[in-house]
Recover the amino acids of this structure.
């Protein structure tokens, strides 16, 4: 079971334009720092946060307790001009877990309610011993073929096209997909089979002419699983492994 | 003429995996803080930065001088374990400007070179008095129709699909497009005509069933233009204006 | 036993002037952010950090393990252009613990060595169940008597004079003292008796005409002890308690 | 004339304990980040901020306009759970300027008022062409004599004793003094003569046995003056200059 926390800024949209639109640069600074803080706070408990839409962030939180969530919620209130709410759920797949996390939080009121503040809506927690599976995916040959030779924006568009195709392909297999910078993506993918991932990669190669590889990690929490995924990816890059998928599992 | 600065982290890819892969959460914190700092530093000179791929960022920098660029480059070196290089160019359109900015920076060496550090490669600067045009685009009815009713991840996928369609449509009209959080996008769009933007919106409505609106600002720099764009968007939201496009220009 | 970690930036002095003096504002930003990060990282493990001299910081770290120290050291390296070393020791009093922590770190090389990097020098760790005692001290009537009526700098000098007197008085009783902003101080003070603290306060009143109060907390770690100290101070402020000292202890 | 801005967090004390005392670590993170942001924002306009008491900060702001102050005030409101007010004044000496800046701000209401928010109280601005004089002072032989050989806390106490003596001595000469980390201090010191500074140093040597040196910079704003002060100090450290005081002036 993978545990997902949906993090939602309370009543953010109205705040950004009250009493008049706030300066765009300030909002960008605010959002990226809030994400950095959430990442720092959750990861020190073993979690991992994806910025997603910045006002609705998705985190893998196996091992992060209700008490931890309360303290993080409190720290954010003490540092920012706004507050956050959480929906927490465990599922067999990340798609299922985020679905339940969204549902339980939506049940507590609108994201734009003036009264819904600092909710922690719990569907379920993962149990100790249950594992997280994460794939770190990147694009082959991106520095030579793109960054050093094509205009920056065209590479950016290409990366986004690949992202959307990955999102669509992986969603059919019940896995989520997030952009993490450069030409890198992370997919919380409990239950995903190697042949399913290969199939998604094949379709993207046929549609876009882009080839991908994936290092996969399995561990007790997202922090360790993502580290193993990075090590797996290095094995492929270093040609220690044939093919485009490598898996490492933390058995302890 | 719009002035674009391509910001590139020097030799970032190798750094992230040397001597072994660095912790993913630390990299996420690093990237988002670097972006926040660049946004804060450039915007205090009138610029505006988009995070793009985080290791290759694109900024609108009309009014930001060579001296300002040097000081920002220096401040980043003094605060971070890495350095950045710049390519600077002005163009009739944002697509042209980023093309020239990319080209001039690529001419100074590879993004993964161990010796290319802290370059400022200049193609051209915009002149005083030249204007920046920015469109702030958002999705109609996203809170009711999506955030409060559908799973968080499905909304995130939808926003990304809209983004890629906007990117493709606007690129044909020589405009760039960036995601800025929530259901919001910004497009530096010098030279873009209203009917061209309407046409892009129509196609997206036909393909995805999603309707969009745009507040546009025109001013001497990106900081002011983006503020005007936000005010324009509020006029549409408040139904002070019919249609889905509103323009405000700073004539002084 | 109280556990103290001495945090030292490696070879910081030379770095600040190499190849030429770095911009003062950048150094101030760097130092205060480094402190904020250390505070955030240590406190999520139950610790509490005082900025002290900014290049040599002192933390109370009961409950923070060797593994935690390694991860924090690593996160700092991944985010900053410099690295840090630690000396760790437990003692009956905070003065003793910092003495041993300093000694063990100094034994591993100079703070200005070019080769001494990322040391973790361990004298001893506190055991589970051992308690931390912290006093939160503030100045009576500072808003009316000083902040709202006297020049800002004169108040600042007064606060510093009180600080140095507190430092001297408490050091004789084997307790440390740190400024934490406003008119507030914190003293890790295992072993300090109420009458000793009263005696220090009396001397300061006689020398400087300034009267002080202290909320004290005792708990399994500094995070909880400081919270109890704050609650104790509120009891005095709210006149729930007579006198200028109040103690709360976490018995669980 | 030197221009000083007193920066005051609005109603901060009550906020820190409402509805109950906020977590000490969160407050420390908040204060140090607020300082880092103020430093970054003011310095990009040529100013320099000293953290002072963290809730009352003193900045040298020659060249920072009323409009700049408004934008900084606004950016802080957009990023933090609290707001700040300013008192601005120019004076022949820094002591005089801070006196007038304090007075004009105090005239607008209490620092703990629930209604006084985001004030900009102006006594006077410095004129273009007027200079700032800053001394960067440090302690001779601190690494060998203290950091590497004595306990960290004893060094910290020593630095604070030196600071208070410097504060007292310099105040009689109408100059302010701030700690900036390590064994370093900065003194905005318009009007201070070399022999006066020498006299202060002599007294401290006689009282505490500590010898000091000062690099001094004179320039159109604090950012440049502090850079010159740093270069002056390097000249003394490098023995390019005899004695313990060196002055560099930006004549352009």
């Amino acid at each position: 079971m993978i545990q997902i926390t949906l993090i939602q800024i309370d009543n953010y949209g109205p705040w950004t334009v009250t009493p008049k639109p706030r300066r765009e640069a300030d909002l960008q600074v605010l959002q990226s720092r809030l994400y950095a803080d959430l990442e720092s706070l959750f990861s020190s408990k073993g979690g991992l946060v994806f910025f997603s839409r910045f006002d609705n962030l998705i985190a893998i939180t196996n091992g992060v307790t209700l008490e931890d969530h309360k303290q993080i919620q409190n720290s954010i209130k003490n540092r920012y001009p706004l507050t956050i709410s959480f929906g927490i759920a465990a599922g067999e797949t990340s798609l299922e877990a985020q679905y339940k996390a969204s549902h339980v939080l939506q049940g507590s009121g609108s994201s734009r309610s003036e009264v819904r503040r600092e909710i922690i809506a719990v569907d379920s927690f993962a149990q100790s011993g249950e594992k997280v599976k994460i794939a770190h995916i990147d694009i082959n040959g991106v520095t030579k073929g793109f960054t050093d030779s094509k205009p920056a924006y065209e590479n950016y568009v290409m990366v986004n096209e690949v992202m959307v195709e990955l999102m669509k392909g992986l969603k059919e297999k019940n896995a989520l997909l997030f952009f993490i910078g450069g030409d890198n993506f992370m997919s919380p993918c409990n239950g995903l089979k190697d042949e399913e991932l290969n199939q998604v990669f094949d379709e993207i190669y046929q549609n876009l002419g882009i080839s991908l590889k994936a290092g996969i990690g399995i561990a007790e929490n997202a922090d360790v699983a993502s580290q193993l995924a990075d090590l797996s990816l290095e094995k492929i890059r270093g040609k220690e492994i044939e093919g485009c998928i490598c898996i490492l599992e933390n058995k302890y």
Notes: Chain D has a mean pLDDT of 96. The two ends of chain D are 17 Å apart (CA to CA). The beta strands of chain D are 2-9, 48-50, 56-60, 84-91, 120-122, 132-139, 178-181, 184-188, 212-219, 245-249. Chain D touches chain C through 76 residues (CB under 8 Å).
